[in-house]
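Researcher: I'd like a structural prediction for the single chain below. Treat it as a standalone chain; there are no partners to consider.
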Amino acid sequence: MDQLIIYKNIGTTNGVVLLIPVPDCGLTIEQIAAKDVPSGIPYAVINKSDLPTGDDAMFIEAWEADFSTPTGVGADHGIGSYYAVIGYNPDGTPILRQEQVIQ
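Model: Treating it as a single chain, here is the predicted structure.
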């Protein structure tokens, strides 16, 4: 898959989050974005060739993107998307960030 998903790094003032889909996962890029982008957060689908290169690629916290005309917004799938999932417990249940994502 040559497409990636980016969205603003919520909880910080700068940077973006870069989602790299697993090849042959069986989901479309839109389905991946709907499940992985936090609820209500605008995202953009970009090509790998659109990523910064050289010195500009070193600090993802300094990357900037225009989300004024996003590809879409993260879907609301219940509490797991209302609170940011930051990891998983050994039993497979999600670890949720304690503060709510700003909507």
